[in-house]
User: Which sequence fits this backbone?
């Protein structure tokens, strides 16, 4: 289902961008206003964390974040898809893609898919060896 209303599309991405900016600004008050009480956060390391656990486990990472550059963004109704390049205070750079559900101007859920370091650790046109499955 595609939402043809540009206001809805803009609002979903706007909320996600505001959350990323709150990380850069270390503005917990701002991000708390954007995250709904029923919020769930999932990543390769976290399985549907509730709001309180998200703030306990993930929010401290804001201390290291210095910038997010959005590479791709798209919406489909309440869904916002964002790929970004993040930078930390130690100079580390990496890409992630996130899928968000935004309802009534607040995040309901986030799924994070970890990307790669920038620059990529594999040589151009090459790959990193992985252990053989047993």
Assistant:
């Amino acid at each position: 289902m595609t939402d043809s209303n540009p206001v809805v599309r803009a609002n979903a991405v706007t909320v996600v961008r505001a959350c990323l900016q709150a990380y850069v600004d270390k503005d917990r008050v701002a991000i708390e206003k954007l995250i709904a009480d029923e919020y769930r956060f999932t990543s390769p390391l976290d399985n549907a964390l509730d709001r309180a656990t998200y703030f306990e486990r993930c929010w401290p990472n804001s201390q290291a974040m210095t910038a997010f550059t959005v590479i791709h963004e798209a919406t489909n109704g309440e869904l916002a898809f964002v790929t970004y390049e993040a930078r930390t205070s130690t100079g580390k750079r990496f890409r992630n893609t996130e899928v968000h559900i935004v309802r009534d101007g607040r995040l309901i859920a986030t799924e994070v898919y970890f990307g790669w370091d920038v620059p990529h650790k594999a040589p151009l046109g090459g790959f990193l060896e992985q252990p053989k499955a047993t």
Summary: The domain at 6-117 is CATH 3.10.450.50 (Nuclear Transport Factor 2; Chain: A,). The helical segments are 6-25, 28-34, 51-57.
